[in-house]
Write a structure and sequence with these properties.
6 strands; SH3 type barrels; 2 helices; two-stranded antiparallel sheet
Length: about 100
C-alpha cells in the first residue's frame, strides 16, 4: 500500500537490539529489542511496513518502519483495581475528613 507524502502515520523504531541491552535486566526482557513508536508526517511517499522518514509535531526527524496510517488515539489506564479505590478513599479521608 503506497502512502502519500505528508500523511500522518505511526512508525516503529528499534532503540536497542537484544545484544545491546543491559546485562542486569530480566532474561525475558533481554531477549527482545527495545522499541518505540513515534507519530508524525511522512517526508516522502512510502510503503506500509517499509522504512520511512517522518517529521514529528515537535520537528524531530525520525526513521523507522511504517506501521499505521492515520493512527487512532487509544488510551487505557488498565483494569479497575479495588485496592486503588480504597487507597483513594483513605487519602481523601485523611486530607479532608470523613465528609
Amino acid at each position: 500500500m503506497l502512502v502519500e507524502k505528508s500523511k500522518f502515520v505511526r512508525i516503529r523504531k528499534y532503540l536497542l537490539l537484544p545484544n545491546e541491552r543491559a546485562k542486569n535486566i530480566p532474561l525475558e526482557t533481554s531477549k527482545v529489542p527495545m522499541k518505540m513508536w513515534v507519530k508524525g508526517r511522512l517526508n516522502h511517499e512510502g510503503e506500509l511496513f517499509e522504512d520511512v522518514e517522518i517529521t514529528t509535531v515537535s520537528g524531530r526527524i525520525e526513521k523507522g518502519t511504517l506501521k499505521e496510517v492515520e493512527p487512532k488515539y487509544k488510551h487505557s489506564y488498565g483494569d479497575y483495581v479495588e485496592e486503588l479505590q480504597r487507597m483513594r478513599e483513605i487519602i481523601l479521608s485523611e486530607m479532608w475528613g470523613e465528609e
